[in-house]
Amino acid sequence: xxxxxxxxxxxxxxxxxxxxxxxxxxxxxxxxxxxxxxxxxxxxxxxxxxxxxxxxxxxxxxxxxxxxxxxxxxxxxxxxxxxxxxxxxxxxxxxxxxxxxxxxxxxxxxxxxxxxxxxxxxxxxxxxxxxxxxxxxxxxxxxxxxxxxxxxxxxxxxxxxxxxxxxxxxxxxxxxxxxxxxxxxxxxxxxxxxxxxxxxxxxxxxxxxxxxxxxxxxxxxxxxxxxxxxxxxxxxxxxxxxxxxxxxxxxxxxxxxxxxxxxxxxxxxxxxxxxx
Amino acid sequence: xxxxxxxxxxxxxxxxxxxxxxxxxxxxxxxxxxxxxxxxxxxxxxxxxxxxxxxxxxxxxxxxxxxxxxxxxxxxxxxxxxxxxxxxxxxxxxxxxxxxxxxxxxxxxxxxxxxxxxxxxxxxxxxxxxxxxxxxxxxxxxxxxxxxxxxxxxxxxxxxxxxxxxxxxxxxxxxxxxxxxxxxxxxxxxxxxxxxxxxxxxxxxxxxxxxxxxxxxxxxxxxxxxxxxxxx
Lengths: 276, 232
Known about the structure:
The complex is a heterodimer. By secondary structure, chain A is α/β, with parallel strands linked by helices. Helix content of chain A is 41%, strand content 23%. Chain A has eleven helices and ten strands. In chain A, the strands form two sheets. Chain A has a six-stranded mixed β-sheet with strand order 6-7-8-3-9-10, sandwiched between helices. A four-stranded antiparallel β-sheet of chain A has the order 2-1-4-5, with helices on one face. In chain A, helix 6 (142-155) packs across helix 7 (172-184). Chain B has two domains: 1-94 and 171-232, Rossmann fold (3-Layer(aba) Sandwich), CATH 3.40.50; 102-170. Helix content of chain B is 34%, strand content 28%. In chain B, strand 9 and strand 10 (229-231) form a beta hairpin. The longest helix of chain B has 17 residues, at 185-201. Chains A and B meet through helix 8, helix 10 and helix 11 of A and helix 2 of B.
């Protein structure tokens, strides 16, 4: 994966991670409740460039609500999310204009959904799915867009011959990889992922995890990933937040949380995992 | 000689909230230090807390009391009380850990597993590959295995892959949890040699060595966790 395109993204993100140690996101008192205990409550953390933060917890613990709120898709009831922009200024994402928020989601940020149909346009070609985001950031040259599209298909291990096929003809694993390519094509700094390996069988899951690990390492991406699978969290995340009934009950270094959990709920979660 | 690790009054308790909330103390007020170029062996009966202490030094376990000061360039960081980000940086540049068992990543080749710590630090692929192949050769891991994922390897092969991964980065501090446990005599001697070379480079080492011969060859001091004494 050592081509010029990758190197450029890597260099850009390395530079920004060297620029003093400024958090990319500063989250303070973030609350979004649908009902008492339903949603997320009083969440605080900093995310630094190049860090992968995992959010774990059982179904209904508020993981997805938190992710939607963090990724500018769901207005919180209270609290703030400060984003350190590429240009250097720090702004609360819910105080930005709607158009600026949309622009962020199309360029600096990416969202990988659990179900590829939520993140892909199923009835246009794979190439167009990748190209769409490039066009959204101002690329107009068809030849260039197609070339970049081919490079990204290769980077996510999809046969280049499939560039003109629609994603509905792809397998679940391929769709998920296409979704990742679509997001990474604009050189994002921050990616949000909701159970990216959720619906895949284990062999496909392992392949996707390996791909994600390499992309995160080579591109110095910052990632916030929601998963209920602790093995996935261990492989991908540097840090974990454990959620229960909308609250973060424990957070820290991934292997510390999994190997020496302190909170009763985390202990229960870790000890409930079946190991084959 | 610089003090690289300074453990002060370290205590670690485990509380099992889902098993009646029982609580037991594994480390009680442990203090010692390790300097550059020195190898300290943790000693004691099974259950005396050797592995717990080792894991605490790597911030894999969280002690309740005391501190573990780690010398890092021009600063000293208490890894027992550090932010995840600081721990990650220490693990990237300062502290290496050879665990007893290789935690395998599905699908990743042996060569990539060994190279990863250097790649994380930003080393070029060629440079990392050269070092990795050198170590694998030295540890007698057959070349035909390098492109395979180590999950199907024998215990001894996995352990040597793990050792290669631990030694690839020349960390100033290296933690070794029974690095020779499943090795034959020849490979055991290679590892002993590598440990002695690391000491010569000024690496501070802490290890658990059940093999008495290995221990006597590499360790400068013993920390006995059964009764809390220190011997030369």
